[in-house]
Write a structure and sequence with these properties.
Elements lengths: L1 E4 L18 E4 L10 E3 L8 H16 L3 E4 L5 H11 L4 E3 L18
Parallel strand pairs: 3-4, 4-5
Antiparallel strand pairs: 1-2
């Protein structure tokens, strides 16, 4: 795991444009993609079958175009955003708002 602080040279510049950017990022994986163009997909944990399918398909299409997909690690829409991206062999970024020591929700994600 790598720590990136807000004043570090490799801190993602696009995060500096938001109100109250995180002061620290804990990164596992390819940190270089943090500065690349990406689209966030978020939604309900209790998605309909249609919502799951359309999310997976949308993420797949974005990834095939070389666009990074960003989402949380919750079950539901977040899971399908990541799984569609992985299926397309794309790049995905998971954002944990609760920190890396306590995952919310505490139940395990179901990656279909």
């Amino acid at each position: 795991m790598k720590l990136i602080k807000i004043n570090d040279e490799n801190y993602p510049r696009n995060l500096l444009n938001i109100e109250n950017p995180p002061k620290k990022l804990y990164v596992i994986g390819n940190e270089k993609i943090l500065g690349d163009f990406g689209i966030a997909i978020v939604g309900t944990r209790n998605a309909s079958k249609y919502g799951e399918e359309i999310t997976k398909s949308f993420a797949y299409g974005l990834a095939k175009q070389g666009i990074n997909v960003i989402s949380g690690l919750a079950r539901g829409i977040d899971t399908y955003a990541h799984s569609g991206t992985i299926l397309a062999k794309g790049k995905t970024i998971a954002v944990l708002g609760s920190g890396f020591r306590k995952y919310l929700p505490e139940r395990k994600c179901r990656a279909n």
